[in-house]
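Figure 3 (text version): structure tokens given as input.
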């Protein structure tokens, strides 16, 4: 896995921290529960290679580790298609549970998250016993979490924040080949049934309605239309030069009367990561551990 993942995990970790800090203050006043759903959870650690092969906590462990202190989630929901990932994550969570002061309350789902989401939402209602807020992470590697799934979450419960990883370069590439496809050429905006493919289900719109350089813009507008009015982004870049690898981490929240105070954190994160690529992080690490004598 590329070193760019460290940038992504930093953003996730910082946002989880800010989210819990702010909502924990309201938790007791409003008798409110806080939930975290990692819809593409993997196994809890991410391994980066090159120079020193190193393991970092992935999103699921980053959220679970918050059980160390008072600001933690009341329940964590994980889901991954791969049995191996689920089994490893289960062992890691059990080990963590033995050392953390607060007992972990979690469930690992064995299904496509686009289907498991129904059960997750039902369980959240059952567990909340009243009012709850949820942070939903869709750390897409490919076109994994469909737009319809996000819409369903939003329609079921508006008090959710989304963190979504938008894989810009794979989306642009795939769009190019889809647009040459006869079913796309013959598609009409009034009947998009010919465009029923993974790309369309992911973006929530067929490629024929979108210009190539406006994929992110359209996706963001669609999120706004379903009620996530406030959206910030942080660029995550891989290689040394622009265009080699590019993900967009979107943080989408609904507008509140007081505004989303913690969104200002994202401006700071964006500034911090604008000129940092995954390769730069690898160089810094290898320099720190002595594999590389100078910073390039
Ligand atoms: C990018 S990794 C997630 C990394 C993780 N969030 C982290 O920070 O360590 C994506 C994971 O999603 C799983 N996956 C892909 N599509 C899925 C789906 N539709 N439902 C559930 N899991 C899925 C893959 O098996 C893979 O482990």
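Below: residues designed for each position.
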């Amino acid at each position: 896995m590329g070193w760019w993942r460290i940038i992504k995990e930093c953003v996730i970790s910082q946002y989880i921290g800010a989210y819990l800090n702010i909502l924990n203050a309201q938790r007791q006043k409003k008798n409110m529960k806080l939930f975290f759903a990692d819809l593409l959870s993997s196994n809890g650690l991410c391994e980066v290679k090159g120079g020193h092969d190193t393991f970092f906590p992935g999103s699921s462990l980053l959220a679970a580790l918050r059980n160390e202190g008072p600001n933690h989630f009341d329940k964590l929901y994980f889901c991954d298609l791969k049995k191996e990932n689920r089994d490893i994550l289960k062992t890691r969570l059990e080990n963590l549970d033995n050392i953390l002061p607060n007992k972990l309350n979690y469930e690992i789902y064995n299904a496509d998250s686009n289907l498991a989401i129904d059960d997750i939402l039902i369980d959240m209602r059952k567990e909340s016993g009243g009012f709850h807020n949820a942070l939903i992470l869709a750390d897409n590697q490919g076109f994994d979490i469909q737009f319809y799934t996000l819409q369903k979450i939003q329609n079921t419960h508006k008090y959710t924040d989304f963190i979504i990883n938008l894989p810009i370069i794979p989306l642009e590439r795939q769009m190019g080949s889809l647009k040459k496809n006869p079913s796309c050429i013959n598609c009409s905006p009034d009947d998009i049934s010919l465009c029923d493919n993974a790309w369309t289900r992911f973006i929530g719109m067929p490629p024929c309605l979108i210009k190539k350089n406006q994929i992110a813009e359209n996706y963001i507008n669609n999120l706004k239309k379903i009620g996530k009015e406030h959206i910030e982004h942080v660029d995550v870049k891989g290689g040394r030069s622009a265009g080699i690898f590019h993900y967009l981490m979107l943080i989408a929240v609904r507008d509140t009367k007081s505004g989303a105070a913690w969104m200002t954190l994202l401006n700071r994160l964006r500034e911090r990561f604008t000129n940092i690529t995954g390769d730069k992080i690898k160089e810094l690490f290898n320099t720190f551990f002595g594999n590389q004598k100078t910073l390039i």
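Residues 4-287 form a domain with the Rossmann fold fold (CATH 3.40.50.150).
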